């Protein structure tokens, strides 16, 4: 019988982070809560029982420190994020880009490298499930979110994921990561106190769609997102695929 998957979630102490941890717990996963705050995360299930999880402190910029830990991870959920609303200072710009885009991109690359090493070590017959990365980009990837720096940083992350997925997910010689993109509409949290959905509802929908095998997971009341997001990802796949080449292709004569 396969062992339960090991799931690590960033932004674990936030609203969606906690809701995702509870959902994964219901499915029997081993949990790692990656949190920037020093506090101990205490979660309880519906019956009021404490949820067993490993609390790991990590902050943006400390991605290399997670390399060892990632060795045991099957599903990495990159969920941390920040909204600087109407700010546009250099500091706010740097913070938005670092937290919302660049740290997730660095963790994606690092996890892909770890998975490649693991595959080389354990071989194709490994009992482990295919490794997955879930990236929470938000519908701000393609829609206004009344917060320009939030939109810019989430769009950057979305585009980087589309570009790098050509090698990391689709190249047979690559790590063959399964990359799932979470495109979420407004839900209530400290990042968005006026969101119309609840984080528990959103987390339940995310896991239900993942179970259906979807890689593009959309949870929003906005019907336009269901139309525009698949078109945007398809367009990028074709555009990036035509105009760029992977590292393996560059090495060929
Ligand atoms: N709320 C919405 O309407 C909405 C809509 C679409 C997408 N999203 C996305 O959903 C994700 C979760 O957001 P949420 O709404 O649940 O907000 P939240 O409750 O504020 O959670 C975000 C978490 O990100 C982590 N974080 C923030 N700055 C960080 C830093 N410098 N380094 C590392 N971690 C940092 C913090 O968790 P730790 O202290 O545990 O690290 C924080 O609690 C975000 O990526 C957000 O952009 C939200």
Unreliable stretches covering 5 or more consecutive residues: none
Instruction: Give the class from helix and strand content and strand pairing.
Output: alpha/beta
Q: How many DSSP helices?
A: 7
CATH class: Alpha Beta
CATH third-tier fold name: Rossmann fold
Provide an overview of this structure.
The protein has a single domain (6-251), classed as 3-Layer(aba) Sandwich (Rossmann fold), CATH 3.40.50.720. 43% of the residues lie in helices and 14% in strands. The chain has helices at residues 15-26, 67-70, 90-122, 148-168, 199-211, 223-243, 247-251, and strands at 6-10, 30-35, 54-57, 75-78, 132-136, 178-184, 216-219. Helix 4 crosses helix 6 (223-243). The longest helix has 33 residues, at 90-122. The protein is globular. The model has no long low-confidence stretch (mean pLDDT 93). The structure holds NADP nicotinamide-adenine-dinucleotide phosphate.
Write the layout of secondary structure elements.
Layout: E1 6-10, H1 15-26, E2 30-35, E3 54-57, H2 67-70, E4 75-78, H3 90-122, E5 132-136, H4 148-168, E6 178-184, H5 199-211, E7 216-219, H6 223-243, H7 247-251
Parallel strand pairs: 1-2, 1-4, 2-3, 4-5, 5-6, 6-7
Bound molecules: NADP nicotinamide-adenine-dinucleotide phosphate (NAP).
List its salient traits.
7-stranded parallel sheet; binds NADP nicotinamide-adenine-dinucleotide phosphate; Rossmann fold; single chain; alpha/beta; 7 strands; globular; 7 helices; 253 residues
């Amino acid at each position: 019988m396969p062992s339960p998957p090991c799931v690590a979630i960033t932004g674990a102490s936030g609203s969606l982070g906690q809701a995702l941890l509870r959902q994964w717990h219901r499915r029997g996963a081993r949990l790692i809560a990656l949190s920037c705050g020093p506090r101990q995360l205490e979660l309880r299930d519906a019956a009021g029982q404490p949820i067993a999880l490993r609390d790991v402190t990590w902050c943006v910029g400390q991605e290399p420190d997670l390399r060892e830990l990632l060795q045991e991870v099957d599903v990495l959920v990159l969920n941390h994020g920040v909204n600087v609303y109407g700010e546009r200072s250099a500091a706010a710009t740097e913070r938005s880009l670092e937290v919302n885009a660049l740290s997730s991109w660095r963790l994606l690359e690092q996890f892909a490298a770890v998975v490649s090493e693991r595959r080389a070590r354990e071989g194709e017959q490994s009992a482990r499930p295919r490794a997955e990365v879930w990236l929470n980009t938000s519908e701000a990837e393609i829609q206004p979110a009344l917060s320009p720096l939030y939109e810019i940083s989430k769009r950057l992350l979305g585009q980087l994921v589309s570009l790098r997925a050509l090698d990391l997910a689709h190249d047979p010689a690559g790590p063959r990561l399964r990359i799932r993109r979470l495109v979420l509409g407004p839900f209530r949290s400290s990042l968005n106190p006026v969101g119309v959905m609840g984080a528990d509802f959103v987390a339940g929908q995310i896991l239900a769609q993942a179970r259906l095998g979807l890689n593009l997971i959309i949870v929003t009341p906005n019907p336009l997102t269901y139309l525009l997001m698949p078109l945007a990802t398809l367009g990028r796949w074709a555009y990036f695929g035509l105009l760029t080449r992977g590292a393996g292709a560059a090495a060929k004569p």
